[in-house]
Specification:
It contains 5 helices and 18 strands. With 356 residues, the chain is of the alpha+beta class.
Length: 356
């Protein structure tokens, strides 16, 4: 068997990334969904206190966050952590003159210590990903636009990070202009059609994201991390639409533009636990929140410039009862490494240092 253990002389920079669904993080008194009471000031304080403590424990160099209605609320939670981050951004959920946070649906964001070279919301689908949804017509835009960030580590390595939150499995019902449901949601046939709409929308979003992944990875050496709430399991059709990992088994060339579950390729396999679920739906544990990496982080790949040391799921709070001051998702953290150049550049980091 080939030994892929790094040479003792190898020098590494570490990178810790995490994905966190924050469960409707909004400012106090702000109506975010019809039929849901806004947070009281006391609820808001409890929520940002709780999130601040979670962020402190995660201590990640890059946080991919979902379900943010107000960027100001995220900034408050980050401030409660006591950690220093150079970038806290939620495009589409800004607060300020003429800016009233996200409208209609929450947005995804990024919190990072790394230098941000570029930050782009992916809104419109390529034409190949547009699907006609029964009763709704063409689905040609992300409901919650993924965020593509180009980041640079201290030793000069560039990496790309995608934060995503795909369409949920909840049935999608027809509504009028005022948001009132036009269908009998108690009818099992209507429920089935609503679930089909959601599936098609999520598949369309997954394909649009896949096409972006191929664009970024095909015949490049750019390390890519895709994280977020995919609203389906790692081996589901929609997740595999994004990752295309299964093709690697019979086509080694497919590694070039495949994405690998960090959980599956982590080096410290002894740390794996059978309780790595990130959500509980009607009593059943699920893995919805995922970290995917390109082959540059797969130790057994010829193109490897790093690896995944370990992946941890912080999910104990899922058993503490329903309380919207907490999240209904577990948070997933991955410790990655990148090999430093043999001749380190100015200001390069030392082995095992963090942040990078």
């Amino acid at each position: 068997m080939t030994d892929h253990t790094p040479a003792p002389s190898a020098r590494w920079a570490t990178l810790t990334v995490a994905t966190c669904n924050l469960l409707n993080l909004a400012q106090a008194g702000r109506l975010f969904y019809e039929g849901q009471e806004p947070y009281s000031q006391n609820e808001f304080e409890r929520k940002v206190d709780w999130l601040g403590e979670r962020i402190r424990v995660l201590n990640a160099d890059v946080l991919a966050v979902q379900e943010v209605w107000d960027e100001l609320a995220l900034r408050a939670a980050v401030a409660r952590s006591g950690l220093q981050y150079g970038t806290v951004a939620v495009p589409g959920a800004e607060n300020g003159p003429g800016q009233h946070g996200a409208q209609g649906t929450p947005r995804v964001g990024l919190v990072t210590r790394l230098k941000v070279e570029s930050l782009q919301s992916l809104t419109d689908f390529p034409s190949a990903a547009v699907l006609d949804i029964p009763g709704l017509g063409p689905h040609n835009r992300f409901e919650r636009p993924p965020l593509l960030a180009t980041l640079r580590m201290k030793h000069g390595q560039e990496i790309a990070v995608i934060t995503a939150h795909l369409k949920s499995k909840r049935p999608k019902y027809l509504q009028d202009a005022q948001g009132r449901t036009l269908e009998d949601t108690e009818d099992p046939a209507v429920q089935a059609i609503g679930s089909l709409r959601s599936l098609l929308m999520r598949a369309s979003e997954a394909l649009a994201l896949r096409l972006k992944v191929v664009e970024l990875l095909h015949r490049t050496r750019l390390p890519l991390i895709a994280m977020g709430d995919f609203n389906d399991s790692p081996h589901s059709v929609t997740t595999q639409l994004i990752a295309a990992t299964s093709q690697v088994a019979y086509d080694k060339g497919a590694r070039d533009n495949a994405m690998f579950s960090a959980w599956d390729v982590q080096g410290e396999a002894a740390l794996r636990r059978d309780v790595a679920y990130s959500h509980i739906h009607q009593g059943y544990p699920e893995v919805l929140d995922q970290v995917l990496v390109s082959e540059e982080f797969v130790a057994t790949s010829r193109a490897s410039i790093g690896d995944v040391r370990r992946v941890e799921v912080f999910n104990d709070h899922l058993h503490e009862g329903r309380d919207r001051s907490r999240s209904d998702h577990g948070f997933v953290r991955a410790l990655l490494r990148l090999r430093l150049p043999d001749q380190p550049l100015t200001n390069s980091v030392t082995s095992g240092s963090s942040p990078t």
